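worker-03 picked up job from queue 'complexes'. Input manifest follows; two sequence lines, order preserved.
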Amino acid sequence: MLLILLGVLILHIIILILLIVSTAASAWSVADGKGTDLWYSCITSNGGYHCKPSSNEDWIQAVQALMILSVLFCFFSLIAFLYQLFRLVKGGRFFFTAIFQILASVFVMCGAIIYTVMSPDDRAHTNFGYAYVLAWVAFPLCLISGLIYIVLRKKE
Amino acid sequence: MLTFLALTSVALLGIVPEQSQAIVIYTGWERHALVGSDVRLSCSFFSWRWTSEDVSFSWTYRPDGSRDTISIFHYTRGVPYLDNKGPFKDRLEFVGNPGRRDGSILIKNLDLSDNGTFTCDAKNPPDIVGRPSSVRLLVFENVPIQAGVITGAIIGVVLGLLVLIVVIYYLMRFLVARRVFSLSVRSVSGLWPAALCQSGFCQGLELKPEPIPGMDTCVAKLA
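worker-03 finished. Artifact:
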């Protein structure tokens, strides 16, 4: 039992770290020496590393909001898990934790989908960076973690 | 003595305004407008002298990214002269009131090529020493969204909904608990031991004890 709990907790923490790195790293779209993300677009020219704030369009602000919300909800679900671990009745289910975790996965999915659809179509030169891939990896992990919490029961 | 004082005061009155006899011109700092709309560029000045008959206003324009300045408006001796050859041909209108030191102009039907710096220079003879003031015009296709407004709105709405749902959940639990309690009290009007009734236990629950004749117990009825 302790092993299962530990495994679930480690999975949760890994998901939280993935989400934070994905939200903050400047690598959603990469071209040669140029990385764009939700907040800045940075260019490594021979003068150095220059960053300017990314465009203010509505879709990028929506993606920013959804990624931040997913990080927040994953964090809330971690706190709810630790709280329910000590206060839940025997045989109870971790409902709050599961709800927050599933909401977090839904937000990551929405954010990644919006970014995929609306990012500028320049496929000849730009590819998707690792932060984008991390967001897509975090979504199923988060969903699975949420489902595990629904199934998990508190034993003695 | 008195003449000495009079002479010094006249000299002071003559000297002090000399130094502050610069004309100060006020325009805005920046103006934002949409393509196709009109914008009013205001210009007024402060001067220690009365507004003279020969007051003059002139506006010059420097497009963004260019180093040439062209003159687009001049008002002198009571007659405004508008641009009739340059980029603002037929689009300028003088809406100022020189008598009230206002030299504002109105530019109609803006275009993206009107982005630039407009400089107003006013002269109020004999008060002519002053620095012209510039206003920057920014023309947009559509109203730009500020960075972070939509982000903040989405986050605020979702967190607000979350707080609302949690509050409603706990409120419902609290209310249901109370209703369950009050229901169970109303349905009990059975036999209570006499000692309990006399000690005032029933009074708190709006029940009053009625002793059953011939028995040691009493019945609690709703008050």
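worker-03 released lock.
Helices of chain B lie at 2-19, 149-187, 194-198, 201-204.
Residues 19-140 of chain B form a domain with the Immunoglobulin-like fold (CATH 2.60.40.10).
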